[in-house]
Amino acid sequence: xxxxxxxxxxxxxxxxxxxxxxxxxxxxxxxxxxxxxxxxxxxxxxxxxxxxxxxxxxxxxxxxxxxxxxxxxxxxxxxxxxxxxxxxxxxxxxxxxxxxxxxxxxxxxxxxxxxxxxxxxxxxxxxxxxxxxxxxxxxxxxxxxxxxxxxxxxxxxxxxxxxxxxxxxxxxxxxxxxxxxxxxxxxxxxxxxxxxxxxxxxxxxxxxxxxxxxxxxxxxxxxxxxxxxxxxxxxxxxxxxxxxxxxxxxxxxxxxxxxxxxxxxxxxxxxxxxxxxxxxxxxxxxxxxxxx
Length: 292
Ligand code: C2E
Ligand code: MG
Ligand code: MG
Ligand code: MG
Prior knowledge:
about 290 residues; alpha/beta; 8-stranded mixed barrel; binds ligand C2E; binds magnesium ion; cyclic-guanylate-specific phosphodiesterase
């Protein structure tokens, strides 16, 4: 394409490409420094039950508090970390930090029944992944039944046989596995039947227009019905409004996560949130502290 427009645009093109490459290199070394300087933070977003009242767990999400650039969202740096392989240490750091914190909360009597951690496709199929998970549980002393791993469909389909084997081994440890962003990948339904998963998370993109778009509503209803027929509970992510909550509830969705119930919050924020929930369990929603 660049060639068609002659020499000038070709130069412009390579210049832009160089800038991109440089940006990536900077990002790569910035990520390395961030790991060393502890600029990463784990935030926690609550997940609530059918009634929208009881906290059934939290999802751990990474944030980067960059000294100059401010907060950088995971979408901006995780793809780079995937390319450089830095994602492995980042994810294990998130897992360990989250497990340690949930263990501490539970020890303090602020019960949080589950913490979900996102696992990258590449990481899931690594030979030493199971061992890494064991090590984290060992080091943090968190009971495996508190840990949930979120894996996307594509991660499982890439090498389905291997993925199924890994899942069985992980489940033997006593943890749970959820399929994240369900509906956006290319998993075949016949495989889904064979996967030892515990939960399906409907992707936020379907929930967004669930009230105004008949197709999104239909897809969501279909996913819930299919999951239930397979004996799997469903959690909806990205629930922002009361009508969305009402629609999902009417259609027998089992659990919810989204700004309507609570934003991702700092560890201190989560502590306060759980405190308040325990003190007044009927309080329907307590806003988190993170600003988006
Ligand atoms: P995800 O796992 O699907 O996480 C849900 C995302 O939706 C989070 O974005 C969360 O902040 C956002 N969200 C939750 N409720 C709402 C809502 O009501 N409205 C809107 N508009 N958004 C909502 P976040 O934290 O920016 O993370 C984006 C993605 O980055 C995550 O999607 C996950 O795939 C990935 N990610 C985040 N942390 C980690 C991590 O520690 N490891 C790995 N491998 N991936 C991570
Ligand atoms: Mg997730
Ligand atoms: Mg998701
Ligand atoms: Mg999503």
